[in-house]
Amino acid sequence: MTAAKVEIYTWTTCPFCIRAKNLLMNKGVDFIEYNIDGDEVARNKMAERSNGKRSLPQIFINDDHIGGCDDIYGLDRKGKLDALLADNKV
């Protein structure tokens, strides 16, 4: 079983970004962080991947757009996040 590929777009001082990263770290998940402070090119790429969403953070698991901080915490509350993070794909 391999771990899911987790990517998160953040700003350094964004409290929601910090909360989302803390959730992933508490679960022992390795993730790729794209810190896009003031980088409009990177933000535009993020918006393209997230169906136009420009708020931060934006989180992707196995290239699927999960959403932001509230979304990832919602998945965790419903017991659905761990299954996404397990990535049972062959």
From TrEMBL:
Organism of origin: Anabaena sphaerica FACHB-251
CDD domains per record: GRX_GRXb_1_3_like
Domain of life: Bacteria
Family indicated by similarity: Belongs to the glutaredoxin family.
Gene Ontology CC entries for this record: cytoplasm
Entry-linked InterPro entries: GLR_AS (IPR011767), Glutaredoxin (IPR002109), Glutaredoxin_subgr (IPR014025), GRX_bact (IPR011900), Thioredoxin-like_sf (IPR036249)
Protein name: Glutaredoxin
One function term, GO molecular function aspect: glutathione disulfide oxidoreductase activity
Role of this protein: Has a glutathione-disulfide oxidoreductase activity in the presence of NADPH and glutathione reductase. Reduces low molecular weight disulfides and proteins.
Domain (Glutaredoxin): residue spans on this chain: 6-66
Keywords from the named record: Cytoplasm, Disulfide bond, Electron transport, Redox-active center, Transport
GO annotation (BP), single: cell redox homeostasis
